[in-house]
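User: Fold this, then the next.

Assistant: Folding the first:
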Amino acid sequence: MFLAKKARLLVAASVIALVAACDTAEERAEKHYQNSIELIESGDVDRALVELRNVFQLDEAHREARTLYASQMLKLGRLQEAYGHYLRLVERYPDEVEGRVILADLALDRRQWEEVERHGARAIELAPDDPRVEVVEVALAYRAAIQSEDASARREAARRAEELFERMPEEPSLAALLVESYASDGNFSDALEVTNRAIPVQPDNQELYLLRLGLLEQLGDVEGLEQYLVELNERFPDEAEYQQMILRYYMASGQAEAAEEFFRSVVSPEDEDLGDYASFVRFIRNNKGVEAAIAELNTALQVRPGEPMLTALAASLKFDNGDRDEAISQLETLLETAEPNADTRRFKVALARMLLATENEVGARKLVEEVLAEDGVQVDAIKLQATWMITDDRSNEAISLLRRALDSAPDDFQLMTLMAQAHARNGDRALARDLLSLAAETSGFAPEESVRYARALIDEEEFNTAETTLVSSLRARPDTLSTLVALAEVYIRTEDWSRAEQVERNLRRIGTEPAVSAADRIRLALLNRQDRSDEAIAFLEGQFQDSSGDTRALAVLIQSYLQAGDTDRAREALDTAMLENPDVDDLVFFDAALKAVEGDLPAAEQRYRMLLEEYPTNERLWLELIRIVSRQQDPEAVKALVDEGLEALPDSSNLLWAKASRLERELDIDGAIEIYERIYAQANSSVVAANNLASLLATYRGDDADNVDRAYRIARRLRGTENPAFQDTYGWIAYLNGEYSEALEYLEPAAANLTDDPIVQYHLGMAYLASERQEDAIAQFQRALEIAGANDPREQFVTAREKLAELQAAPATQPQ
């Protein structure tokens, strides 16, 4: 009895203790929360955040603590963390007004429109009269108007934004919206006034400074632009991007000395970190030549004799100047005596790049392996290693390596670009494009990354996003030729003639020879796309006259005549030029090409042969001659010409391609594969080269597992393709790997398009057979054998006859 009573007491005590513990947890959480408030009031935010994290360990649902923590993250500028905590808040408390408003506002700042719509719609329901919610509502209306190309709705949204901006000039999204709207209507002065009003109340909003910079450029305010760039550098002295802007401005405006003077004012060889000084030396090299850069470094080495970074940079310059052996020796000597550290690893990578340039890939790879053995996340070494892996069709290994590098260098956009290349090799096009987008954004929309991403978007016909990307890049670098040319292509493809003409005017304003040449190409493309062929020809005639007989202008003019079907005018223009310049070989080449168009093939052949006697290593001449002889139906002569051309140009990919195609037609598959291997080694980024090699390996060596594996690694980039030949290659490899459903997904459209190719029809028949679709397999084998003919000796059709006989002899099965 005593024991039973004691046990009851123990149980009761345990229950009481358990209840007390629960109460204590809540009380402890609340105590941590109250402590955090006191600490924040006293200015000790760091300890307050620790207290709030203690709250979450005890009570994750503590609403006030979550709100306070999120708001502190917001004040500290840790926006990603703030966003995450507000997101947790609204997910647990859907009617949380403040959280919804802030989430919509943060998403709006980052242009994450799906999130703006999700949280904005809820915020509009909960607090329609909150001014911040009105901002979100106007921004959504403006975006909808842009997407629907409704100019009146856009202007109405802008009018509402004007009213809000009067009350809230500190709201960044309003200023950006108004600037964009005014600029769209050509009201650059009004747009500039918006930035003038917004910047004093938003002094840290760097987007506003960039917008103002672009507007000054649009207004042609050269003096104001220079003064503003100087102000920006004074306002943000630690922002390298603004230093680069003023340097680009000085160089674009022909003020090379001012650029050098500015650069000297912000760097010195006595700096502890010599990275910026190294950039200055490269600037001297690019603008005054290698000798000037070497002289600059010699002066620096007098200040800091034997300094390893300067010594390595001097070796690099010697290499660029042609003293390759001495440069390599100098770096090797430096590395022999230096203690291993981060700098020496960078020097080893620099030496590896030199060895690569001198075709010593084995030595380069050895150095990179040494660097990665010392430091597994040395980013520059990883970039080289990943590039080799991608080239070697080891894209999965490259992706793993690049992920490791991005963990240590999350903002390295070159790593992102390489990662995109690796995913593209795997056929993951959407993921590759996402990484190109991230690389462009992370680089601050640098020209190379922005154009690369825009090109991917143009290929997918996503012109609006491509335009946005290119315009973002031009805001910081308004005179970048590659970006302007890509933007013009977007406008021409979307038939936005007025904006394409604006790009053309900008290029002519820049005035350099490459810029004017690009403007001429845009003008010609505009006229041709609008079917204004007479104006296009008149434009080209004027160009030719202005060029004083430049053969390039003549070539374009002749091509234009031929496209218009006016052979007589083409001949007249060429004959006139040849009379005036009888010894110009380019004109003889044009004459040969025109003879071919006119149908005088023997005369064209004679002229090409004459030119080849003087220029035996000119690939284009060989190709044109082969084309002319092919048209004369002389296959043996073509065969001899290809072989003769390869004697003069043994590495010509085009001539190798011609020979491989012939060998394939002659069923010399081993010979064709050998040549395609050479072509692929030269250009493994070529999708066509990859397809041809993978196709032959899979089709004719598909009984060997190693060859099938190699074919798959080469052909992975073809996933998702809509090209029928590529579909056949990838589909057949999927079949060989036992992926029959995926095989049919590719082989059916391939066979539907390549109706005269018996191999493609055979591939589909085998996939049907493996999928137990016997009737379809019978029809497909019959089709393949009918196209191939009774005498085709290839193994595929021997197999097709055997399988067909087996299927026809088998008893019919009832469908399930």
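Now the next one, as you asked:
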Amino acid sequence: MKQPETDLVAAIRRADFDEVARLVGGLTPQQRRAEVPGLKALRRELRDSIHSRAGAGTALLVAGAVCHTAPSGAAEWIGSGDFEGVERWHRPPLGGLLDGQDTGWQREVALRLARRPGDRESWGPSTAYRIAEHLLRASDTPPPTDPGFVVEWMTDRGDPRPRHGEPRLPPGIDLFARLVQDSFTPVLAPLVFDADTAGLLSGPWVAKEDAQRWPGVLARLADEQVVDREELVARGFARLVRGGGAGELRGYLAVVRALAPSEDELLANLRALTALLDAASPLAGYAQDCLITLDRAGRLDDATVAEAAEVLLARPEKKLVRTQLAWLDRVAARAPELALRAVARGYGHPDRQLQGQVLKVTGRHVAGVRGRLLVELRAAALSLDPAHAETAAQLLGIHVESEEAVEEQDRLPEPPRPVAMPAPLGSPAEVAEELAAALAGDGDSVAFERVLDGLVRHAWQDREALAVALAPVLVADEWRTLGVLAGAVTGALPKQRAWRSLTTPKASPFRTWELRGGVGGLIAARLEETAWRLTGDPVPLLLSTPTRRNGALDPGELVARLRRYEELGLEPGPIDLAQALLRTIPDGTSDAGADGLASPAGARLAAWLRAGGLPRQAAMPIPAGTARPGVRMTEYRRFCDQPGLGDGELSMLGVPGSGAPGVRPEGGVPDPVRALLGPTERFHRCSEVEHSMPDARWLAVLPHHREELAVRLIGQLADSAGSSPVRGYPQLLPLLAEAGGPAGFAVHQALAYGLGAAFPEDRTAAVDAVLLLAAQSALDATLLGHETGELLRAGAVKPNRLAATCTELADAGAPRLAWTVLAGVLPALLDGRPPAGAAGLLTAAVECARRAGARGEIPAVTAAATSGGRSKLAAEARVLAGLLERA
């Protein structure tokens, strides 16, 4: 039975502040605790109501807090999110209830509130913080140093509005005026580096200039001795050393810069400065500037100079290296041996231009050097690029590796060999185990085929045993791909529902966004037909289960399977037979015994094998400049044009109709097969040709026709190299390379997109595919380079990614192959205005050309080399042109 409402609850509901204060003030501690259940019930009632932000919520906040006589309960009550945004708690007479509590209660409640985390999404300080500060001052308690409280304090002090509960702090945009009058400032200001305050340091939002923001204000507080300057500087350097994200470090570095540490302060934090040399570039640059300041003042020892040079000369940032070389150039005036030993650490820098600058510094100070130092310089010079051999020889009197270094030969992998499929799953338990793995997997074709085969085989042998084994694996209402087939076997998917979905194409569980279109449509039709078999027309096995992992099917095995069908008087499924024919390995000389088969399917197989199967053809490029309205030619410069197969070839796949899904009752070629093998769009980008998401199952559909598959992969591979790249599609390229058939324009364009993929692991997969095709003597490296150059010219791939991939290809044992590809790319790279990153690609070309022993002029390189420019690209072009002109 509901308890009657107390007078206090009724007063709170009316927002009668005077009555609430009078009633609470007259309660004993025991009576206050007795009111708590009713107050909690009222809080639940007002939760998410406008009243909780108005008067009722304000009265409830204060009354509930003081009715919790235990500080723990009071802090939990105040910290509840239900009271966030309540503002009038400090006004009389409610504020008097908080002020009237004993100081022990006030102190403990405040400290408990202060320990709450400060990472809230609110724009301003929380209600809990404001009450905590009020209670701290009322109890004369020093501010706590908890990180969350520091964040709340900064948030509150950055708010220009009047202070609730602390009216003596001036409002407005003058943060310094507010902090200088704040007794919390000397304690909390040095702690800004110890809390998560990076997001606040660029504010407060009302600041009009840098001097009004936190970095400038903190520096002024330190200068005027409001806070301990030595402590603030030390904490600042310590925070930078701890590291973090670029955004947060930028804020902390701004505070340290604003403090403008003196030479004495820099020297006191020397260990931190040397540690920052290895940090993010902005921090390293700042530390380098500080060390240079100390060195110019004569306050830096030689060991620190040498340590800084060792770290900074190995960094990739050109600005840091150049600054370091200029510093060492000045040091050489007073300590030449120290400077030259330090400069020598830059001989092995990967940037060829910077190596040249290192030699220039060496040349200004090496005269007269003898003995051990000269030996050390000569040893270090062995790591110089061969382009600097002559200069090094003149300066140091040593032979450095010349341009006539021994050429590397390509070491290609062994050609891929056929790998047999694992044996069929031997029991219902094995089918269940493999099904669980396949449902959680990512489209692996081997697991997919084994489960499909296992479901059919064991449904024929012992359907009840299979159903029992599959039941624990299935999740109710998750009917997709193989799960639908298993549900049909177990009865978890009602037969009537399965039948309706399979006989209504739009309702088919396989016609999802994942599986429709050409390749995906054939996979979907095959699943539909298999489900049809499992729901009422079982067969002992599927004809199309491959015998090799790449999807290929041995003709002798297909003959044996068809013979089994004939013995049992069974008709093959139209899609199953069509897929089996597409997978069968034809040699054009033998029918593998198919002439002995009596069925029409056997006759079709014999004709298929004698004719050599589906014709293999290469795609043709569309002429440059051809356009069609609506096609973004600037994004994808060239497209694949796949001619359709003639009726003669398709007729070999013709099968009589059986009423199964996806097949016309009057017979002929199954629609999914016609859709797969018919002509593709002349123009396409992304998913105009194939709308489904490719996976390894695609490659197993046409294991002898990689060009046909490549046409349908181009769009997704383009997505992997685009401005908003999609991860993973180039992982299919090695499987494409292992397929049979010609490797024409489509395959090479697919590889070109893979070489320019955004993600390193995808580019590595493209490198593997290139090596596999080369091992089969199926790669046209010149064509690959030309197509990659066309994509580069169109902006579809980026130079820096190509540089990394070609270097990886050379390092994988194929420098000559990498150079051939790059030689085809360079004319497009240097045509017109080179894109960002062109110099890096030219650097990779120089290295590959040297390792490959490349010869022969490339006009575009010669033109760039003789342009007279002083850029890195011009310098690299001159080096490359010199390499190519060698006799």
